[in-house]
Amino acid sequence: MLSKVEVKAAIEALLFMATDPLPIKVIKEVLDIGVKDIKDALELLEAEYTRGDKGIELVQVSNGYQLQTKAEFLPFIKELHKPEMNNTLSQAALETLAIIAYKQPATRAEIEDIRGVNVEKALKTLQKRGLIEEQGRKDTIGNPILYGTTDEFLQYMGMNSLDELPPAQEFTELYDE
């Protein structure tokens, strides 16, 4: 049986090595301890990483927990890695992604109807980056593919669930101003 200090250290090690957000369920399976002990340890870790002398923080994202660098250190991280390719999404891809996020599951025709342009290339880009996926077919003429966002989308946006999307009305109000 692990002590509280060992549980916290073990969870920290798991979070450090995890490449994706780590759900409590997985931590429970690996350490074979109760959910309350896990949540207590996560709260302690979060408090430790919130201190100003730490460069990383514990965040809850995509129904799991993850260690990430604090935003204020982004310029140093960029300088260290100097990305070789541009990882930003085009305006067309961002607009298509937003439509899918709010209207999912949505067919290509439904997305094109909203955007008023062909979205085939944007859909391929978003699928290639793992931000959207096929989620079946619509039960209508031609059985078109339905698209929805992925857990990678939640990670990309830094959200825990789609419920955290801002209300669509806010965009309309900004556009009207």
How would you describe the overall organization of this protein?
By secondary structure, this protein is of the alpha+beta class. Helices cover 52% and strands 14% of the residues. A 3-stranded antiparallel beta sheet has the order 3-5-4. It has a two-stranded antiparallel sheet with strand order 1-2. The protein is elongated and about 60 Å long. It starts with a helix and ends with a helix. The mean pLDDT is 90.
How would you summarize what this structure contains?
This protein is 52% helix and 14% strand. By secondary structure, it is an alpha+beta fold.
Strand order of the largest sheet: 3-5-4
**How large a portion of the residues is in β-strands, by DSSP E?**
5-15%
Order of helices and strands: HHHEEHHEHHEEHH
Structural class: alpha+beta
Distance between the termini: 60 Å
Q: Rg to the nearest angstrom?
A: 20 Å
Task: Record keyword descriptors for this entry.
52% helix, alpha+beta, two-stranded antiparallel ribbon, 177 residues, three-stranded antiparallel sheet
